[in-house]
Specification:
Blueprint: H1 4-22, H2 42-56, E1 65-69, H3 75-83, E2 88-93, H4 96-108, E3 115-119, H5 127-130, E4 133-139, H6 148-158, E5 159-172, H7 181-194, H8 202-211, E6 215-221, H9 223-226, H10 228-238, H11 243-249, H12 251-258, H13 260-269, E7 272-280
Parallel strand pairs: 1-2, 1-4, 2-3, 4-5
Antiparallel strand pairs: 5-7, 6-7
Helix pairs in contact: 6-8, 7-13, 10-13
């Protein structure tokens, strides 16, 4: 049986061309205001998500080096590179197809000299070879990473003293009360179809960050702010113009499209939570 990383890589190798054709280079939720009340173009909402996480996360004014951990095709990476002129960035993804597309986008944006995108497992990064970073950005990738404490320990090693981590990730609701049978069934379907290890709650995520050595940890629940995005994604899946691309993407992508109904149900029931986290490595 293929490993989790192999399944993730194959899923994104197959589905990325369809996503790029339908949605463009930002491969994450949009932000629609704190209560999801803003009516805005969905691609604009995806850029707003980046801007809002930088604002809420109290991003540094200046950055020399940044890491986009789980970068997709590097959509966030390019926004960060433009926001921080003169900076250099590294983005890593498990998908060779995403990495190749990302390098093409970098060249088109004139950023190929400042932004490197690699097909590489985040857990294989190390400070001695890859250096340290002023900012680590993790946009909807940590849900794919099974050992959260080891992930935060890695981020601690990769951050410069005083460096900052900003993360947005899929979670489940806090317990107690215990997850219901329906909650567990919905979460299991999402994890199966999107190739995720078991999700954790936002408080569990914060505990893992503390155990990983990070400080000044803050979290928030942005579920209401991002929920409208799933309606838009479902409508795009129902658009007949996208069906040929879906068929070409193969059975894994079709199953991923089927998972959208479980995501919508999870947001509706409250089983799914969209968590954001900011943390720092203390200055030495």
């Amino acid at each position: 049986m293929a490993s989790l990383n192999q399944r993730i890589s194959t899923f994104y190798d197959d589905s990325t061309p369809l996503w790029l054709n339908t949605w463009g280079e930002q491969m994450h939720h949009g932000y629609y205001g704190p209560r999801g009340e803003r009516k805005v173009d969905h691609r604009r909402a995806q850029i707003d998500m980046i801007d809002e996480l930088l604002r809420w996360g109290q991003a540094p004014e200046a950055v020399d080096r940044f890491l986009d951990a789980g970068c997709g095709v590097g959509g966030s990476s390019r926004v960060l590179a433009i926001r921080y002129p003169g900076s250099s960035g590294l983005g890593v993804t498990l998908s060779p197809v995403q990495a190749e597309n990302g390098r093409h986008f970098n060249a088109d944006a004139g950023l190929e000299d400042r932004l490197d995108i690699r097909a590489q497992d985040v857990y294989t990064l190390n400070a001695s070879e890859d250096g340290q970073f002023d900012l680590i950005w993790s946009m909807e990738s940590a849900e794919h990473m099974e050992d959260k404490e080891e992930l935060f320990r890695l981020f601690y090693r990769l951050l410069k003293p005083g460096g900052k981590l900003l993360m947005a990730t899929w979670c489940h609701r806090p317990e107690p009360p215990r997850l219901t049978t329906d909650d567990r069934r919905t979460l299991a379907k999402i994890c199966q179809l999107y190739h995720l290890p078991p999700l954790v709650s936002i408080p569990t995520l914060a505990k893992a960050a503390r155990n990983g050595g990070l400080t000044n940890i803050e979290t928030d629940d942005w579920s209401a702010a991002v929920e409208p995005f799933w309606g838009a994604v479902i409508r795009s899946g129902l658009d007949p113009r996208n069906w040929p691309g879906l068929a070409r993407a193969g059975i894994g992508t079709i199953r991923g499209a089927w998972a959208m109904k479980y995501m919508k149900a999870g947001f509706r029931s409250g089983a799914i939570r969209y968590g954001v986290l900011r943390a720092e490595k203390s200055a030495e």
